[in-house]
Amino acid sequence: MPTIHAYAAQNATTPLAPHDIQRREPGNHDVEIDILYCGVCHSDIHQARNEWGNSIFPMVPGHEIVGKVTRVGSHVKKFKAGDLAGVGCLVDSCRECRNCKEGLEQFCEAGAVGTYNAYERDGKTPTYGGYSTRIVVDEDFTLKIPSNLDLAAVAPLLCAGITTYSPLRYWKVGKGHKVGVLGLGGLGHMAVKLAASFGAEVTMLSHTASKEADARRLGAHHFVLTSNEELLNKHKNYFDFIIDTVSAPHDYNIYLNLLRTNGTMICVGAPPAPAQVPAFNLIMNRRSIGGSLIGGLPETQEMLDYCGEHNIVSDIELIPIQQINTAYDRMLKGDVKYRFVIDIASLKS
Q1: Which residue, 72, 77, 61, 80, is CA-closest to 26?
Q2: What is the pLDDT of residue 349?
Q3: Mean predicted confidence (pLDDT) in 287-306
Q4: In this structure, what DSSP letter does residue 79 have?
Q5: What would the mean pLDDT of 129-158 be, rounded to a whole number?
Q6: How many structural domains does the chain have?
Q7: What is the CATH number of the domain that holds 211?
Q8: What is the pLDDT of residue 272?
Q9: Which of 39, 212, 230, 328 is 20–30 Å from 101 (CA)?
């Protein structure tokens, strides 16, 4: 098994540091990818610091992976050496349950296999992510990357992009809809871009007044400062949908009251504590709270193709991997516009 250079967390309290791992040789259905760029997701911090309580160490994070195919197995049909390829949040699933057969691998009833911090289907081989120079993935979980886009800026589409694209498509958001996007970060900036591209009227909901210019640049038609009670009152019963991207504790009820009758608040952020929502805030106007994860493999490919056709990518800051611990600290302070992406060439040198 080849030895691969990577960066890993050895436990929940140590900084990420160089660490060699082993990858399997490509099997008949595998694609080997030379990783060029890997996005940095906020969940990487949660996992590396064991904030969700399920961390497997040593851990190599990273599930927003793009690169070039170097080798393929004998039965691989969709890829050849030299192709651009991507890997998102999943590298396997049972493929037999109802959800897998419907292209909803993210909801695999047997448990999908995460790109990192998981075990392969054998239950004992740990998965390692994209903070590394190379990865081997089954063809069915490998994605085609549009060649016309900035490759580094494509990487976050594999998580932030599909996390916002999937619910917008599921709830059929488009022309004639009024959409509020709560939180302008890695997820929020993609929600603004995508919802606007679908033809919706988009309003940015933010507690930071200085973000208004950026929100409008990204495609928002309106901006509401959430600390301005008068502005919030003017938007009661206004939105058809609110995409809630906030992972910090916040009061859902403030935003539920901005929904019109039959409106839906879609949660894609994951606050650490349960929300308190009185039933009457849902009952009185038949409002709903929904949740969404990522998309399955077919929908993720659909999203990449759509972004290629409409020239949509993430706003990124490219960093060498040696700056990853500083990047984590900056992310916790909200000091990034809007996604860090690691230049994996810095790991190879």
Answers
A1: 72
A2: 67
A3: 98
A4: -
A5: 98
A6: 2
A7: 3.40.50.720
A8: 78
A9: 39
CA distance 191 to 241: 12
Q: Quickly list DSSP for 299-338.
A: HHHHHHHHHHHHT----EEEEEGGGHHHHHHHHHTT-SSS
Residues 265-290, mean pLDDT to the nearest whole number = 93
Residue 320, amino acid: P
Residue of 132, 100, 99, 128 lying closest to 114 (CA atoms): 128
| Residues in Cβ contact with 35 at an 8 Å cutoff, skipping those fewer than 6 apart | 65, 66, 67, 130, 132, 133, 134, 135, 344
139 plus 205 within the same structural domain: no
Q: Quote the domain boundaries for residue 203.
A: 161-291
* Residue appearing with tokens 């990204």: 218
- State how far the Cα of 290 lies from the Cα of 269, in Å rounded to an integer: 11
Identify the residue with better confidence: 305 or 2. Answer: 305
E strand or H helix that includes residue 101: helix 98-101
Q: Bridge-partner residues for 21, per DSSP? A: 4
Task: Report if residue 307 sits inside a domain.
Answer: no
Q: Are residues 33 and 138 in the same domain?
A: yes
Q: Which residues contact 328 (CB under 8 A, 6 or more apart)?
A: 16, 40, 44, 45, 48
**Residue 270: its pLDDT value, please?**
85
What are the tokens at 310? Answer: 């409409």
- pLDDT higher than threshold 80 for residue 280: yes
3 state SS of 48: helix
Residues 97 and 190 placed together within one structural domain of the fold = no
pLDDT band at 94 (very low <50, low <70, confident <90, very high): very high
| Residues 169 and 153 occupy one common structural domain | no
Is the model's pLDDT at 1 over the cut of 80?
no
pLDDT above 80 for 219: yes
Handedness of CA 343, 8, 18, 90 (dihedral sign): negative
Let me know whether 101 and 65 are in one domain.
yes
Q: Give tens-digit pLDDT for 56-85.
A: 999 999 999 999 999 999 999 999 999 999
Taking the whole predicted model, whether its pTM rises above 0.85 is answered as: yes
Same-domain check for residues 56 and 131: yes
